[in-house]
Structure formats: structure tokens, C-alpha cells
Amino acid sequence: MTRNSIAFWTGSTVFLVAVFVMTQVVGNQYPFFAGYVILQFIALAVAWSILGGYAGYVNFGTSAFFGVGVYAAVFLVKAFGAPLPLQILAGAAIGALMGFALGLLTLRMQGIFFSIATIALTIIIETTITNWRYVGGAAGIQIQRPAVTAPFDNYVQMLFFVQALLVVLAVAISRYIQNSWIGRGLQALRDDELAAECTGVPTLRLKLLACVISGALMCAVGAPAAMYLQYADPASAFNLNYSVTTLAMSLIGGTAHWSGPIIGAILLGTTQQLLTVTISSEVNVLVLGLMLVLFVVGAPEGIIGLIRKLRGDRKEGEV
Amino acid sequence: MFSFDLLLDAVVIGVLLGCFYGAVSLGLSVSFGLLDVPHVAHPAFLVLASYAVYFLNEHYAVDPLVAGLLITPVFFLLGLVAYRLYYETFEKRGSDAAVRGIAFFFGVAFIIEVLIILQFGVDQRSVTADYIGRAWRLGDIRIPYRLLVAFAVATALTVLLTLYLSRTFMGRAIRAVAQDQEALRLMGANPIKIKQWAFGIATAVLGIAGALLIIVAPVDPTLDRAYIGRTFCVVVMAGLGSMGGTLVAAIILGVAETIVLTMFGASWAPAISFAMLLGVLAVRPQGLFGRRS
């Protein structure tokens, strides 16, 4: 293990221990309700940028993966009363399959056509779920939470901890990809797919891999949301806001490094939670739009890019 | 359940509805089809135009179509500004302009959506005029006058825009810039100015299209999301940049939507345009009347 890795795993362990201690000590429920949403978006943004950031395929279908995760959980609970870990695993498996299909799409579509195709997929899946009576149809469905297991004494606290685990998993995978040959291959095909293919980079295999991993993570993140809200309906589970928020978080943070989406998600997620509580959810969407436009125009490389620029300038000054 | 009359009814309404879809897609056919701008905020501008028409109709009792004409100069200017902004921040810098551009326009669409909500609220809005709410009986088929109005205006718009692009100097310049921007530069013309003008035209057409949108059915602030699918489906199916093709593709979509609506119910309707879009992208990416191979 390199020094970097030791630092990363120590940090992750400290984070998980802190989250666990928080669930045991803090009595107020609100921090968990708000924190869960922020953690969920960190995981989504990190998963998104495996395909959108490293490979440069801009996926607007985050809400499709998220919503399928939600409905996988809803179906399993209604049909078999499946426990939470099984819901998440099933979500991940379905997400991986969806990701594989998405990866095959990249064979025919690049750039904006790929992005439009992902929006199309989202609406088609949403419509299918809307017409599926068993899981509630357009009206939505109520879900009963089972009894909470020790050592937690509240279900939301447990979900909070589970989501923290998913965040660490997503970040660890994203970090591993960035530092391995997979990440370098993805970056090569992002810069020039034809050149990468010609120099022997297995572009199709890499794209499929990125789509499968990204999709599995996004679906897994969606699965616990059914239990969190105790309710699911197609219009909100597949809301386009999930796609645009996730994309905005990654772009604001910067996609050149695995920590970019985390920074973006914490910044935007916290701002949105504060705004929703203090002003209104409409203003929250307005801020999302404004920040997205500002960063895409003013800082195309995101916060990571800004930091690198500042560092670079300072180094030049020292020399 | 299935009957020939019902099918005929669906086809007639579908053709009229399709012409209306053509009218709302014409602007995108220029901005995305000819200029390659990933304009996902196009439907948001469309809904914005509808609300402007609603405002004029509600407060000054202006006929919706006249109101649509009145706002076209404003939308033309809006288009000029929007393209300038897009060019300076994305096209000029080059690298992955399309990818960041689509994120940019999504941001713009969200901002427009929220501003409309803050100003007009989330309720549906509609306009009043003599031809709204009445229908023309043709045998067993009942055709609402508002669809006929939409049909007439859409056809006129398509013809005018086709003539403009093929007969006038500026129109030919726009098609030239779509074919080879570099050649224009070598001949001493400024491609950016021409593209800016074209984007202005594309946005100005939205003024009238917005009037049609609110004539055909009531609008609400998030209606633009449904029209992302419809407009992009029409433009991609038409083959980027073909005006006549846009009308044909729109009619195909309109007929498909009404037939599915009649046979399977309204809950399946949102998926039609996106499914067709996906099908076209996968099978025939250059569209029915494509300019590129």
C-alpha cells in the first residue's frame, strides 16, 4: 500500500466510525434526514462521473437508474418482504444489466446524441412503471418499514449509515479506476476515441465496464430511498431533477479527480438542504440552474480545476 | 374496442396535431439541425413564449395569434443574445462544446421554469379566443377549431421558412454556414454573424409557436419536459435541418401518438416520442431526409 492509499483508507474508516458514533449519540432526527439526502447525492455524483467524467459520455439517465433502484426495492418488499441488503444487491444487479445495455448504445451514439438517448430511456422506463399496476402505477405506493435491527434504534439512522457505506464503496471504486489502467484507458477514449482504438485501447470493453459499474452503483443508491421515503411514485422517482442535480454536482466539483464530485455534492447538496428549509423548493431549483450555468461558463473544470490553477500560478511565482 | 371510424378519427386528428408539432419544432430544426447547437432549452423558451402570450391575452385582451406576432421581435433579440453567450463561452473555446453546452442549456431551462413558477404559479393557464372550445363537424369526425388554426399557421410557417432559407440571400447564407463554415470564412464572410442571425430567426419563430402551444392546450411551467422528447424526436427523425422533412416527421409523430392514445390510453403517450427518437437514433441516425451520410 502506498502512503496515499493508507491515508485514504484511514480517512474512510474515520468517516464511517464518525457516522456510526453519530447514529448512537445524536438524538435529534433531522440531521439524519438531511444528511441522508446529501450522502445519497455524493454517491450518485461519484458513480455518475465514472462514465460522465472519466469517459466523457454525458449521461442524463441518472434518474432512470435511481428510479429503477427505488422500484426494484418496492417490488421485492411487496412480493417477498425482502430485507434491505437484498434490495440493494438486487438494485445493483439490475443496474449493472441496464448499464450494459447503455454501453451497447454508445456503439452507435456519441456526444449529444448519447445524452438525448439517455433522456429518452428515462422517460420510456418511467412510462412503463407508470403503467405497471402491481407497484402502484401513477398514483404511487406506500411502503411499511420493518422493525429496525440493533445497534440502531431508528430506521432512518440505519439508512444513514447504510448510505455512508455506499458512499465509501463508490468512492473507493472510483479512486481505484482513476489510478488503474482502466482510468487511463477511459481518459484516452475521452480525448479521442478513434486514436485510442487505433493504439490498442479496448474501447468497447472499457465503455461497457464504466457503464456497468456506474449503473450498478446508481441503482444501488436508489434502492434504500424507497424505505427512506416510505412511499414511491414514478413522477418523483424518475424526476429529471436527479439527473441534472447529479450532473451539476460533478461539473461544479470537477471531473478530473475522484474527489471533485464529492466536493460538488457536499457544496450543492448542503446549499439545497438549507434553501429548502429556509426559503422554498422552487428557489432551490433556481439555485441549481444558476450554479450550473455559472460554473459551466466561468469554471469549466470545476472547483478542482480552480484549485489546480491557483496551485499552478503559485508554483510559477515561486520559480 | 377497435373500429375503423375510431382509427380514421385518430389519423385526422393526428395529422393536425402533427402539423402543430412541426410548428413548435421548426426553431429547433434551425438551431440544432443547421447550427449544431444542443439547444435543450428550446422547449423552455417555447413555454416562456406561451406565458408571454397568456399575459398579453389576460391583461390586454390581445388575440393569442396577434400576441404571438407581437412577441417575435423580443424573441429574436433574445435569440441573438443567447447565441452570442453560447458562442463566446463554448464554441470559441472549442473542446467538448456540445457536452458542456447541453449542461448549460439545461441550466437555462431550469432557470426559466422556476422564474415562470415564481411569477405565474404552478397552475395551468389558458387563453381565450373565439376559435377556442368550438369544433367543426365533418361527417362523424369532430375537429376542434383550435387544431385547424394550429394546422394553418404551422403550414404557413413551414412554407415561409423554407422560402426564406432557399430564396433570400441571408437564408442561403445560413444553409451555407451549416454546410461549410470554413469556406465562408475564406470568402470573407463572417460565419458567426450569420449563425447569430439564424439563431435569432429560430427563436423568433418560437413566439408564434408559443401562441399555438397555449391555443392547442393549457400550459403549465414544467410542460417543456414533455416537449424535449417531441421536438428532438421530430428534428432528428426529419434529418437535421430539413424544413419540409420536419413537417413530415412531425405528422408521423402526431399520428403515432393519437393512435396509441386511442388504443392503449393516455398513460402511454409520453413514451411514444422518446421511443421513436431512440429507434431513429439506433436504426437510421441520419433521419428520413438527412443531409449527412
TrEMBL record, chain A:
GO terms for molecular function: branched-chain amino acid transmembrane transporter activity. It is found in: Cell membrane. The lineage of its organism: Bacteria, Pseudomonadati, Pseudomonadota, Alphaproteobacteria, Hyphomicrobiales. It is a multi-pass membrane protein. It comes from Bradyrhizobium huanghuaihaiense. It holds the Pfam family BPD_transp_2. This is Branched-chain amino acid transport system permease protein. Its main location: membrane. The chain crosses the membrane at residues 7-27, 33-51, 58-80, 86-105, 112-135, 155-177, 208-231, 285-307. Keywords: Cell membrane, Membrane, Transmembrane, Transmembrane helix. One of its GO terms (cellular component) is plasma membrane.
From TrEMBL, chain B:
One of its GO terms (molecular function) is transmembrane transporter activity. It is a multi-pass membrane protein. It holds the Pfam family BPD_transp_2. The keyword DNA damage does not apply. It is found in: Cell membrane. The chain crosses the membrane at residues 7-28, 40-57, 64-86, 98-122, 143-165, 197-219, 231-253, 259-283. One of its GO terms (cellular component) is plasma membrane. GO terms for biological process: amino acid transport. InterPro entries: ABC_transp_permease, BCAA_transport_permease. Keywords: Amino-acid transport, Cell membrane, Membrane, Transmembrane, Transmembrane helix, Transport. Belongs to the binding-protein-dependent transport system permease family. LivHM subfamily. This is Branched-chain amino acid transport system permease protein. The lineage of its organism: Bacteria, Pseudomonadati, Pseudomonadota, Alphaproteobacteria, Hyphomicrobiales.
